[in-house]
């Protein structure tokens, strides 16, 4: 089996927001087909589709009702077959989202399971009796706030859900459940799907003694280490390889909350036959206050040193032991230039600077739709948000527990909400940014007049063409895929600088991640004399003896 994914760049599509072909305001499969040539022009190799299966859409498709059917608003199975075919015709691969930690409560398995304790599906989910004296079986919390347990009157028991109560967790201890998952994977791979992004895969194995988290004053429910990396996780992943993946030439990337650069090798060491790569959250968590009761909404100011430390740690620890998945954005994260950069006067420079840092590293880069044109966060009023995570946090933290004021929460939502990345893709400066001819399911970001694909394709200096060049470099230059990594200036508060080296060649990757000029002297002894620029985001490198705001470049010695 090839490791084509090492030289690939993956583009993530969030289908409901990508392109609507039939005017119902909702992105669809035919819309994606219409844009395949655009993706080809960008130069990516693989498309990862967020879930397109039948779903009540409580969590925008991460709540699956039927794994072998398309959600009606996305299209039909014929549309899906056509998409796979047309992508393959263009040399593009398709990776699907495997959401198998949980299903929707409307999935047939759960509908049956909740009926009684003695039917063929009773053991498909995790059911527990109330604690002695009543109440939830333990103090585990849902990632979307509140308890991770919901009582079901018919069955007279609680079921576990690490996410919304409409997303019951599957019981992976049950061999029949595992077999069901492997079967559905084969169903899709037989259709030609080229791989899997595995949703919260690190959570599939549970601590079956269901221990309470140690209590802290002022807190009722807890999420954390017991929600992931359970005792049988790696046994399941190895079994999945043997039972489902073997014989198919596909790539796998697991979403691994709770993973560290230390335990990452357990997932990605090729000798262990588990996953090709994982998504860590460590760099995404640098701007939250650790252990805070308000979780991701407790903001900590961005410090570029934290970003360098975490990303470099993963580069170093996986060297020779496994492959990295490189990302700064996805459908769960805000736009990086709004989050940690500048999305106004240096918007383009900043987008290119982050792209340079990410695409210069070793691993497989992921581009999230709109990142390639420098899309920015949205600032809507709280009531306008669609995401279940925001809605639940508003009820739980602001209204019930009162651990965060409405004003503070509003600010945190502008900065961190997942909906920032879920606004419709901006194709043109026309009505609804060219996303739909109808009424979009979610408000278009008002900055679409200035930031859109049509505009980017006309402008030779656009973020789009910069990404195109970085992607081309990934295909052409072995130093990017194979070269070693060394962080330089770890304590510098503004610059992110590192070196790649391969077979006597040396590349220096550098970016000023602030909106202040920095004296070029800081690169003394580091910058190669008489070097050749590989890529740069300003007409002149180090103009006026300064590394200009958000200036970025790669040079060869
Ligand atoms: C991670 C997904 O990326 C996110 O969107 C979803 O809400 C949770 N897993 C639950 O499936």
TrEMBL record:
SUPFAM superfamilies xref list: (Trans)glycosidases, Glycosyl hydrolase domain
SMART domains named among the record's database cross-references: Aamy (SM00642)
Superkingdom, taxonomy of origin: Bacteria
CDD domains in the record: AmyAc_SI_OligoGlu_DGase
A Pfam family hit: Alpha-amylase
Gene3D superfamilies: Glycosidases, Golgi alpha-mannosidase II, Oligo-1,6-glucosidase, Domain 2
Domain called Glycosyl hydrolase family 13 catalytic: residue spans: 12-422
UniProt keyword list: Hydrolase
Name under which the protein is recorded: Alpha-glucosidase
């Amino acid at each position: 089996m090839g490791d084509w994914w090492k030289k690939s760049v993956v583009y993530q599509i969030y289908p409901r927001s990508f392109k609507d072909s039939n005017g119902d305001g909702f992105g669809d499969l035919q819309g994606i087909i219409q844009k395949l040539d655009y993706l080809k022009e960008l130069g990516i190799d693989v498309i990862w589709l967020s879930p397109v299966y039948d779903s009540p859409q409580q969590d925008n498709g991460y709540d699956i009702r039927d794994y072998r059917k398309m959600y009606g608003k996305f299209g039909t199975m014929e549309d899906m077959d056509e998409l796979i075919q047309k992508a393959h015709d263009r040399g593009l691969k398709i990776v699907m989202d495997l959401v198998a930690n949980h299903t929707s409560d409307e999935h047939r398995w759960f509908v049956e399971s909740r009926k009684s304790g003695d039917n063929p599906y009773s053991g498909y989910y995790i059911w527990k009796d109330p604690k002695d004296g009543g109440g939830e079986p333990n103090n585990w919390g849902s990632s979307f706030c509140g308890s991770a347990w919901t009582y079901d009157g018919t069955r007279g028991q609680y079921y576990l859900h690490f996410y919304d109560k409409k997303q019951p967790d599957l019981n992976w201890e049950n061999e029949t459940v595992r077999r069901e998952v492997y079967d559905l994977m084969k169903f899709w791979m037989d259709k030609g799907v080229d791989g899997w992004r595995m949703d919260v895969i690190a959570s599939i194995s549970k601590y079956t003694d269901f221990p309470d988290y140690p209590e802290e004053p002022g807190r009722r429910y807890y999420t954390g280490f017991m929600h992931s990396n359970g005792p049988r996780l790696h046994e399941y992943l190895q079994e999945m390889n043997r039972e489902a993946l073997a014989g198919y030439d596909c790539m796998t990337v697991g979403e691994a909350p709770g993973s560290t650069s230390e335990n990452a090798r357990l997932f990605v060491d090729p000798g262990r036959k588990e996953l090709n790569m994982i998504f860590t959250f460590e760099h995404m968590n640098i701007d939250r206050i650790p252990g805070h009761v308000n979780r991701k909404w407790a903001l900590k100011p961005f410090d570029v040193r934290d970003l360098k430390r975490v990303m470099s740690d993963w580069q170093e620890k996986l060297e020779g032991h496994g492959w990295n998945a490189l990302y700064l954005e996805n459908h769960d994260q805000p736009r990086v230039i709004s989050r940690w950069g500048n999305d106004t006067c240096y918007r383009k420079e900043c987008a290119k600077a982050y792209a340079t840092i990410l695409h210069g590293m070793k691993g497989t880069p992921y581009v999230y739709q709109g990142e390639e044109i420098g899309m920015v966060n949205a600032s809507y009023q709280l009531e306008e948000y669609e995401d279940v995570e925001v809605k639940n946090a508003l009820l739980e933290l602001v209204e019930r527990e009162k651990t965060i004021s409405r004003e503070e929460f509003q600010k945190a939502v502008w900065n961190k909400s997942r909906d920032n990345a879920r606004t419709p893709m901006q194709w043109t400066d026309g009505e609804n940014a060219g996303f739909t001819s109808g009424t979009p399911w979610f408000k278009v970001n008002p900055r679409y007049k200035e930031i859109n694909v049509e505009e980017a394709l006309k402008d030779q200096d656009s973020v789009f063409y910069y990404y195109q060049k970085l992607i081309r470099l990934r295909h052409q230059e072995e130093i990017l895929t194979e070269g070693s990594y060394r962080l330089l200036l770890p304590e510098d508060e503004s610059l992110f600088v590192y070196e790649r080296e391969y077979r006597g060649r040396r590349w220096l990757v550098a970016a000023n991640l602030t909106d202040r000029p920095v004296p070029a002297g800081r690169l003394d002894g580091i910058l190669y004399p008489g070097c050749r620029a590989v890529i740069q985001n300003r007409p002149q490198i180090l103009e006026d003896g300064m590394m200009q705001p958000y200036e970025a470049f790669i040079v060869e010695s």
